[in-house]
Design brief:
Protein name: MaoC-like domain-containing protein
CATH superfamily: Hotdog Thioesterase
Strand content: 25-35%
Oligomer: single chain
Helix content: 10-25%
Pfam family, one: MFE-2_hydrat-2_N
Structural class: alpha+beta
Number of helices: 8
InterPro entries: HotDog_dom_sf, MaoC-like_dom, MFE-2_N
Family: Belongs to the enoyl-CoA hydratase/isomerase family.
Number of domains: 1
Strand order of the largest sheet: 1-3-4-5-2-7-10-9-8-6
Shape: globular
Domain Peroxisomal multifunctional enzyme type 2-like N-terminal: 27-137
CATH class: Alpha Beta
Length: 284
Amino acid sequence: MEGRMAGPVALSDALVGTRLPATSHRWTPTDVILYALGVGARPPAERHLVDEHVGPAVLPTYALIANWWAVKDLRAALDLGAVPIVHSAQSLHLERPISASGDVNVAAEVTALWDTTKHAVIEVTSTGADADGTVFRAISQTMALGAGGFGGPRPPAAEPAPQTAPDGVYTDEVRPEQAAIYRLSGDRNPLHIDPEAARRYGFDDVFLHGLCTLGFAARALINVVGNNDPATLTSIGCRFAKPVGLGSELRTEIWRDGSGRVRFQTLQGDVVALSSGTASLAGC
C-alpha cells in the first residue's frame, strides 16, 4: 500500500500494453529465511523454513519479493504523479518451486485498466524467468484513488466467500515487530514502521504490509492443506480488503473443493483482511 495526498490524474485505455522497464532479482538462503520470518514462520514447527542446515524450504510467495517492483514502480512508469495508490489484489502462479538461491529477470506490462467511476484499477501482469525458463507469473492490481470516471469498463466482481463452515482454520500471531522484520525484504514504506506517517494518511497506527498478510495466508494453506510442504502450493490469489494491525491474532479460514483448489479468507477478529482468496495445491 502507498498513500500520497493529491488530486486525481487522467487515465485512459491507451495505457493498456504499457511495458514497465525490466528488472532482475537475485537471492540467497539468508534472503528466503528472512522472508519466512517476516511472514510469521517460527521454529521448531517451521524450522525447515528458517534453518539452512535442513533447507531452507522456500515459501512460494517469496516470488512476490522479486515482483514487488512491478507495484512499487507503477507510479513512475505510468506518470501517476502524487495520486494516492493502493495495492488492491495480487495473484501468483508458480511454474516450478522457488530454489533457496537464484536469480530471475522480471518483465511486466499493463494488461487491463478498469473504472469504478470513483477510482481506477490498474492490472499489471509480470513474468519471472531464469536460465531454465519461466519460474512464475504474477498479476497485481493497484487502485488509483480518485482517478476513475474515464469511461473504462467495470472491474470483475469479487468472488464471495463460501457460506458453509470452513474445512480448516489456522490461527497465527502477528507480533509487534512483524512489519519491522518484513520490511527488510524490500518494502520500506513508512506507513508500516512510522506511527506519525500512518496517522497523516488516516490510519490509527502502523499496520502489516498486504503482501506480508498474504504470506501468512500461504503458510496457513501449506500447514493445513499442504502437509507442511511449501512445494505443494502452486498458485494463490486474493484481494486486500482491510489492513492488519500488529500485536494481534490472525485467522485463515479454508474451504476445500476436492480437486486441489481451495478457497480462503484471512481475518483479524471479525474483520476480513484478505478476501476472495483462491489457491491450488498439488497432490491435495
